[in-house]
Amino acid sequence: MEYTDLIRTRISVRNYDPDRPVPKDVLGKILMAGRLAPSACNYQPWKFLVVSSSEMLEKVRDCYNHDWFKDAPHVLIVVGLKDQAWNRSYDGYNSVETDAAIALTHIILAAENEGVGTCWIAAYIPAKLREALDLKNNEEAFGITPMGYPKPGFKKSLSKKRKSLEDIVEFL
Fold this sequence. Notes:
Layout: H1 3-9, H2 24-35, E1 46-51, H3 54-61, H4 67-71, E2 74-81, H5 96-113, E3 117-118, H6 126-133, E4 139-148, H7 165-168
Antiparallel strand pairs: 1-2, 2-4, 3-4
């Protein structure tokens, strides 16, 4: 898909077909986009956890209690590795959250390009997710997304409410 069309038509999907998992080769293409994402000093301080087993899906779904979330055949979690991220020497800023967000954005756009629905979720319960994934001290989940094909009959609404460029851009 042409890039401008891709970003213009991508939407958050909250309507997944639980009986239609994403094939591994398609998941591979999507994950490759995250792998190729830029990061500060190219440190790539992340792991991508693809949850597909029914046992792990049950544990992960407990961190975000919405029916539509439970239908997705996969949940992807971008985990940032704080001790592997770049730190700015002037003030100690750690780039892990920015790097993880860039990677998840690449993954979400690649999924759209493959016809796979996603929905960036930040409103999960971090403690439950941490426990479900048995994350180490240096690991932090920075975003999760269900992944799957929309249910048959799903219709995409292309109406997006966005601020005008004049409201958000300043040329200095």
